[in-house]
Design brief:
By secondary structure, the protein is α+β, with helices and mostly antiparallel strands. The protein has six helices and five strands. Strands 4-3-2-1-5 form a five-stranded antiparallel sheet, with helices on both faces. A hairpin with a 4-residue loop joins strand 1 and strand 2.
Length: 145
């Protein structure tokens, strides 16, 4: 069965940007130039192209920016995250940040942790990561906060 959260275009760039609270130009660049968001073919010329999953991705990336990461850190980190994790990046326990870079958990076992810096896959020192890690929090429905 197909998960429509990934396959049904619901939002235009403008409507998604408004919902997330960011500029349409930044979201458009992330979607089209940087290829950081899931973008689907539009049914009409000016129709929706972003599925619900792209809205979640945009919210996540914008939260990294609001958390103090530079635009360069977000864009380079998320390119690598998309390549390494694909849609699994939205699963709990896969992403975090240390205040300057995005970290991703490459452990095969979800209970284990193997944090690497996303932009260059540099491994981390576990003790240091534990002290400075800022995990994404999840609500009771397993949605990112």
């Amino acid at each position: 069965m197909t998960d429509t959260r990934y396959t049904t275009p619901l939002y235009t760039i403008r409507s998604a940007a408004t919902h997330v609270g960011m500029t349409s130009s930044t979201l458009g660049r992330w979607a089209h130039k940087e290829h950081l968001l899931t973008v689907l073919p539009a049914e009409t010329r000016h129709g929706a192209r972003l599925p619900f999953s792209a809205l979640v991705e945009a919210q996540l990336f914008w939260a990294f920016r609001q958390g103090g990461l530079s635009m360069k850190a977000v864009e380079s980190g998320m390119k690598s995250v998309r390549e390494e994790l694909g849609s699994n990046m939205l699963k709990e326990g896969m992403l975090a940040h240390d205040g300057s870079d995005i970290l991703m958990n490459l452990a095969k076992n979800s209970r284990a942790e193997e944090w690497v810096r996303a932009r260059d896959l540099q491994t981390t020192i576990p003790k240091i990561v534990e002290e400075g890690l800022r995990l994404i929090t999840w609500d009771e429905h397993h949605n990112p906060q």
